[in-house]
Amino acid sequence: MACRPERRGRAKRRPVKAAVIVCEDTVDGGLFESIKRRNQIALDQDCDYLIYEIDTLGGELSAAYNIWEHFMHEINPRAHTVAYVSKKAISAGALISVACEDIIMREKTRIGDCAPILLGGTLEGTEREKIESDTRAAFSSSAEANNYPEALLKAMVTQQIKVYKIKNVKTGKGEFFESARMPTDANEYDLDTKELIVDDDELLTLTASEAFEYGVARAQVKDRAGALEFLAQRDGVTFAGEPMVLETLWSEEMVRWLNSPAVMAVLVMLALLGVYIEFNTPGVGLPGLVAVLCFATIIGSKYLVGLANWVEVAFFVVGILLLLVEFFVLPGFGLAGISGIICILAGLFGMLVKNPPDRLPWPHTPLDWQLFTNGVLGLSLGFVGFVVLAWVLSKYLPRIQFLSGLILVPVAATQRGTMRVSMTTPPESQTAGIKVGDAGRVVSTLRPTGKAEFGDAIVDVVAEAEFLDRGTTVEIIEIHGNRVVVKRQRTEGRQ
């Protein structure tokens, strides 16, 4: 085990407790919430050392910022934080690691490459520099607070930074300088033997041995036990037994999975498809249930990672209620339906930006825009998928014998002004002409949808603003596309 003796913590006379907090896979809002929960558990158990076992290729920069701020301002003052890189700490993983007071790397691991990228697009010019400058500042703050070489950390973020290693004549140690900030005193630095570490067309990524050599890592070890042994020797402490290991819960992993753009796109597609099929079939059935479950999953997952607050949830629920009123109470499609759609869209888009309930959900920072853009991409993919599948279903599903009952065939007008309506149980698969004013009899309770008989035809109908029992006499008052709207016939009470 190799180690650097110059950084030492406070000597402790009593045995100290340690907790290992596993941080794997994508860095996202779900991981941030999980880390906060596990940190609190460790602190409640009076743990002195919090060791974050990191293995990630990165993720959401906004989530990494939240974790960085959580470490720097809330956890570091209360416990000794250590980033133990078990395999890789790339991109957002590097930002999390440098927020810890120590970095210890397992042999043959790597750290670095934290240049911001945009899912489904590119960052260029001023937009890139706005995000990079803020990220560089975070790395610089970490370097100052935790004694890491600042020039190397900044080279992990920006490609245009060239870094040299120059020997300090007085101390005999190498120090790192950006090309724009090179020392000029030949009596203090050996300027003739400077070594180029990072060129201006490279993003810095270090192996464990390089990170240890350059002072980014305090030690390179063989395993977790080696990391604990190094800390015990350097800080002069004794750990009280094996450290507790805190991993993510299955529910937390589920929430993280549900909030990924790909899964969110699928949920949106299924929800819209369920609504489409439900509006084109009589009664309330499986498609409607699927839509409700998908929407509930979307809202719940956003709420659990802090992207949805009560205002956005309220907007969404009100939108759903308005659509139900439009569908079941008010024939046709008017103000209630339009308002419902607007409320649903406002709720969904509000969940793409993290904001308190009293502030307008609109992106303000480059990171907010990045998170918002990724969310819009997921919603857009879901909507495109819905449009494609809806077209396929409307075109081909009625032709498939055992599935044709799932979609109502659109109504076609005849030369006499009557409408031909598809029937769920037509006599010998024939259709019959019906028109506004025709009287018939309810053959299955309208709740408010069901079936009514008009002559020899049994037609799927919707009652106007009430439930009608079987045997009630009704008349057709409107025909809207594939919706036949009926009401109780006025003479019903006198028969």
Mean pLDDT figure: 78
Spans of at least 5 consecutive residues whose pLDDT stays below 50 are: 4-12, 407-432
What is the number of domains?
3
Proportion of residues in extended strands: 15-25%
Shape: elongated
The name of the CATH architecture of the largest domain is: Alpha-Beta Complex
Tally of helical runs = 13
CATH C-level label of the largest domain: Alpha Beta
Strand count, sense and barrel status of the largest sheet are:
9 strands, mixed
Features:
nine-stranded mixed β-sheet, 13 helices, 2-enoyl-CoA Hydratase, Chain A, domain 1, alpha/beta, 495 residues, 21% strand, single chain, OB fold (Dihydrolipoamide Acetyltransferase, E2P)
Characterise this structure.
The chain is α/β, with parallel strands linked by helices and 495 residues long. Strands 1, 2, 3, 4, 5, 6, 10, 11 and 12 form a 9-stranded mixed sheet that branches. The chain has a 5-stranded mixed β-barrel with strand order 16-17-18-20-19. Strands 8-7-9 form a 3-stranded antiparallel sheet. The protein has 3 domains: 2-133 and 205-250, Alpha-Beta Complex (2-enoyl-CoA Hydratase, Chain A, domain 1); 259-399, no CATH class; 408-494, Beta Barrel (OB fold (Dihydrolipoamide Acetyltransferase, E2P)), CATH 2.40.50. The chain has helices spanning 29-44, 61-75, 92-98, 125-146, 150-155, 208-214, 224-235, 250-258, 261-279, 286-304, 310-328, 335-350, 366-396; strands at 2-3, 18-24, 49-56, 80-90, 102-106, 110-112, 163-168, 174-178, 189-198, 205-207, 219-221, 244-246, 412-413, 419-420, 433-434, 439-444, 449-454, 457-463, 473-480, 483-488. Mean pLDDT is 78; it is low at 4-12 and 407-432. The chain is 40% helix and 21% strand.
